[in-house]
Structures are given as C-alpha cells and as structure tokens.
Amino acid sequence: MSDAALLSLGRVWAMLLRYLYILRSSWPRTVELIYWPTLQVLIWGFMSQFFMQNSSYIARAFGVLLGAVMLWDLMFRSQLGLSISFLEEMWSRNLSNLFVTPLRAYEWVVSLLAMSAIRTGIGIVPAALIAIPLYHYSIFDMGLPLVAFVAVLMAMGWAMGLAVSGLILRHGMGAESLAWTVFFALAPVSCVYYPASILPHWLQPVAWSLPQTYIFEGMRAVLLNHAFRTDYFLIALGLDGIYMAIGVAIFCASFRNARHRGALIQMGE
Fold first, then answer.
1. Which end of the chain is more exposed for a tag (fewer CB within 10 A), N or C?
2. In sequence order, what are the residues at sequence separation of 6 or more whose Cβ sits closer than 8 angstroms to the Cβ of residue 60?
3. HSE (CB half, 13 Å, CA atoms) of 103?
4. What one-character DSSP code corresponds to residue 247?
5. Which residue has the higher pLDDT, 3 or 250?
6. Domain segments of the chain: what residues?
7. Among 256, 268, 228, which residue's Cα sits nearest to residue 106?
8. Tens digit of pLDDT for each residue in 24-52?
9. Helix H segments across 136-210?
10. What DSSP assignment string belongs to the chain?
11. At what angle do helices 27-52 and 105-135 cross, to 10 degrees?
12. 219, exposed or middle or buried, with CB in 10 Å at 0-12, 13-18, 19+?
C-alpha cells in the first residue's frame, strides 16, 4: 500500500487538537454541551418523581423514562457533535485552508467522529451524575448492556451527522438548519418513551427499520424484566452498519461534488 493511501494519525490528531482548542477557547460552547442534557434530566426527573408518588405503575417506569431521556440525548449529542465541528469550518470559511494541506477527507471524518465522542461525553456524563443524588437513579446500574446501547446509538448519531454534513456541502449553508431539525423528525417512530406496539400498524415497519427502536425496546427489557435482548442488539448493530455506510456515501459523494464545483472556497457565513 502506498504512503498516499495510509491513514495519518498525526494529521487526525492535529485536526482533533484544532477542535479541542476551539472548544476550550469559548466557555459558552462548553456550557452549552452540559446545559441541555442537564435541563432534560431535571425536567423529566422531577416529572417522573411526581408520577412515582401517585401511581404504582408509573413508579415502575421511573427509571425507564429517565434512562430513555439520557440515551436519546446521547444519540442527539453524537449527531450534533459531529455536525457542529463540521459547521465550525463552514462558519469560519476554513475548508479551502484545510484542503490545501495534505489532509484527506477520511482523516477529517475520523477527527469529526472523535470530537463528537468527546462532546457527547462532556454533555451526558454530568447529567447522568446529577441524577444520582437528585433522584437516586443511576443509569450506570444497567452494567454491560449500557455499553452496547451507547455504542449503537452513537453510531446511528454519527451516520446521521455525516449525512447531514454531506447535504450541507451539497446545498450550502441554506441547509444548515438540517443539523438541528432532521434528528427530531425521527423521534415519534424511535419509540423512546413507549413500545413500538403503540404505533399504528402501518407505521410499525418504519419504527423497526431504525436501530434506535431496538435499543429502546432492549433498554425497557433490561430495566423492567432484567433481560438483555441479544437479538435486538444484533439487529440494531446490523442496521447501524447499513446507515453508517449510507451516511459515509452521502458525505463522500457530496464532498467530491463540492470539490469539483469549486464550492469548498465559497462556503461560509
């Protein structure tokens, strides 16, 4: 294999350092990462506590609701973390500067994925820790199944982030709002807070075509029945592979198109 085809960890590390310096230089960016997950946990946690005190059925669902909120926000943060790092380059009109260097598109993508994981950790871990003293609930009690859930949800978030970034490359900054809106369009069919069986029959196949549906169904099985659904996890993993391939294909095709059109030097705020 030629040197030109090898992945340069040095260049990946250089890009990751760039995004870390951007994050460190602006405290509002760090506060924003912590703010929304924590706010979600506070609102849903107090709501769940109210239900717990007034209904024995809802009492069983306390951990399910709070765990679902955290896992859903984790998936959203993984998508948004990738998209925001990408948009940082668009906003600063820096794409042309990046690609006069030896940096390759796939090295850039690897650094975006790494930065997404860091952003997600910064946002989710404090919210999960706050839930322990406030509500006496720890999502970490799920044990090893939690690792499986996190891996699948983050991969789906990355697939969506790559697809959204590709669409922004293709259609310009007019498509920037997709980074915040596309994700929530899937919320009703992701079955975050209720089982897929509650959906209309014609909509259930759509729900079962998404990996996150299997994860949230699996989470409820762990919390309510103390059973890890291996079949759900394996199906979700397979669907993740499909969606990740689609996301990468959209991003790469859009990047080649933008480079051929000379759009990389024209995009920005």
1. N
2. 224
3. 20
4. H
5. 250
6. 3-265
7. 256
8. 877 666 776 787 687 677 766 665 665 66
9. 144-171, 178-185, 204-207
10. --GGGS--HHHHHHHHHHHHHHHHH-HHHHHHHHHHHHHHHHHHHHHHHHHHTT-HHHHHHHHHHHHHHHHHHHHHHHHHHHHHHHHHHHHTT-HHHHTTSS--HHHHHHHHHHHHHHHHHHHHHHHHHHHHHHHS--GGGG-HHHHHHHHHHHHHHHHHHHHHHHHHHHH-GGGTTHHHHHHHHTGGGTTSSS-GGGS-TTTHHHHTTSHHHHHHHHHHHHHHH----HHHHHHHHHHHHHHHHHHHHHHHHHHHHHHHHTGGGT---
11. 40
12. buried
Q: If we measure between CA atoms, which residue out of 217, 233, 244 comes closest to residue 157?
A: 244
Tens of pLDDT, residues 233-269: 999 999 999 999 999 999 989 888 877 877 666 655 5
Q: Let me know if 240 is exposed, middle or buried by CB neighbors in 10 A (0-12, 13-18, 19+).
A: buried
Sign of CA dihedral 77, 95, 15, 240: positive
Tokens linked to 160 = 């969506």
Q: Could you list the beta-strand ranges (E) of 14-141.
A: none
And the tokens for 255? 């990047």
Q: What would the two tokens of residue 219 be? A: 């989470």
- The values of phi and psi at residue 195, to 5°, are -70, 155
